[in-house]
Amino acid sequence: MILGFATIVAVIGVGALVAHLGVVDLGAQQVLSRVAFFVASPALLVTTVAQADVSDVLSRSLVATVAGVAVPAAGYAALAGWRWRRTSGEQVIGALASSYVNAGNLGLPVAAYVLGDAALVAPTLLLQLLVLQPLALAVLDADVRGRRPSVGDVLLRPFTNPLTIGTLVGLLLSVTGWQLPPIVADPVELIGAMAVPGMLLAYGIALRLGPGFGGVVPAAELALTSSLKLAVQPLVAYAVAHHALGLTGHPLLAVVVCSSLPTAQNIFVHATRYDRSTTLARDTILVTTIGAVPIITLVVWLLG
User: Fold this and answer.
1) C-alpha to C-alpha distance for 251 and 242, rounded to whole angstroms
2) N or C of the chain: less Cβ packing under 10 Å?
3) How confident is the model at residue 147, as a pLDDT?
4) What average pLDDT is seen over the chain?
């Protein structure tokens, strides 16, 4: 767990350092984010989802995971729309910051080192990639176009998004058991390998050259997204998994640990891509990444 967090912090630090030294400017953050969004992340999703066991998502753990996501996401969207009059796109980014966990580059090592099986993060990973992300991107696409998303937008628009396409290709490979020929698989894997470091470097550059911590984001809004992510999501997941579904032992620990992971860095990439609540996404990732270490440690101590 410590190794996973330390690796993330180190790469973010490199991004901040090269920005501080003047090697790159704020424009580099935009370039890295766009490359990660349009090129590297879809390639990573192809290889990641193709290796996942899709049957793992169809379990009782999924119900608890869905509840853990739905409550904080809906809570933020409702309060932000009423209190701060956020647009639908801004509400989507805030809701994702409150509930979309770092199941990839942090969840996999945490599941492996803390839970003893990297596959235990599969329900969370596949739920986010196959359901949450496509729906969120459909709303963001519609918001950029200045109109409310229709049913057609929600159903069809995600299939024009590179992240959704990468996810679906990986799902097809997983379900059918097909394998890409090496002449295709090797370049895809190599390109996908730059997704996570690209996101982290872009995040570090934004931390150094972007608006100061908080920026124009109300402190109460940042506190809301951070507390929903760090406290509400794991508590809801625990309550549903243990009291409603009767999970105990290692399966219960897996659900709660996965729900306690910090906000994923790719939410900052989405916020940058659509120019919606960028500072809120950036700062929520920072707060939850720091706060998740004691939270996960406490969860393992109580339930492990």
Assistant:
1) 10
2) C
3) 67
4) 87
